[in-house]
Amino acid sequence: MRRTTSHPSGSSRTGGVFDGGWSSGARTCFARQIETGVVPAGTALSARPSWIDEWSSLSPDAQRMLARQQEVFAGFLAHTDAQIGRVVAQLDALGELDNTLIMLVSDNGASGEGGALGTFNEHRFTEHLPDTVEGNSRGATSSAGCARTRTTRGAGRGPQHAVAAVEALHVARRNAHAARRALAASCRGWWRRCATSSCTRSI
Fold it and tell me: For the chain, what is the domain count?
């Protein structure tokens, strides 16, 4: 079953891709990593942990809900990758790419608050409110809620504003250079004026 969506994260590109479950998805991803050299040839795929249910043992509703969570997560990763590309392209257009150190960092990994079913509100965990398939299925229709799954915490809006931030930084740098030049000129004038007065004796 392949679904389509207009979700802004780009999850329409991944609709239905994860319907086969996490083991199937892991094998497909792992094979692609081997093929592209991301993972060395001969590496063995890790076995499914015992605390993760076999996909076939889940109800159809749970399968749909969990597949949808992964669709949105994958869509957000694709969206993030595109925004990083925009930042790099903008730096290149400004002539600053070779003068820029780019560091991509992450937090400490998956959100433990989500548990096995994921969550659309991490504060449910601190309030001891269990998540359910039914509740998460309702949350899957919300574009805001889909940003919180068992595999990721809130996505944030940073990538969408990265290009504007680079442009603002470039303008700030130009303004800083101009300010330093103006300050230097002012100081030179001040010293010239003080050279023939008592100003130098008070410094």
Answer: 1
Q: With 80 as the cut, is the pLDDT of residue 184 above it?
A: no
Asked whether residue 200 is domain-assigned, the answer is yes
Structural domain includes residue 191: yes
User: Residue for token digits 């942990």?
Assistant: 49
H-type helices in the chain, by residue range? Answer: 22-36, 60-93, 123-126, 133-139, 162-194
**202 or 192: which carries more pLDDT confidence?**
192
Burial of 107 (0-12, 13-18, 19+ CB in 10 A): exposed
In a domain, 173, yes or no: yes
Q: Is residue 182 assigned to a domain?
A: yes
Q: What are phi and psi of 41, to 5 degrees?
A: -60, 145
Q: pLDDT tens digit string along 36-68?
A: 999 999 999 999 888 889 999 999 999 999 998
Chain centroid to Cα 134, Å, comes to 27
In this structure, which amino acid lies at residue 75? G
The radius of gyration of the chain's CA atoms, rounded to the nearest angstrom, is 26
Cβ-based neighbour number of residue 39 at 10 Å: 15
CB count, 10 Å around CB of 134? 11
Instruction: Report how far residue 83's alpha carbon sits from residue 187's, in angstroms, rounded to the nearest whole number.
Output: 43
Q: Helix or strand or coil: residue 149?
A: strand
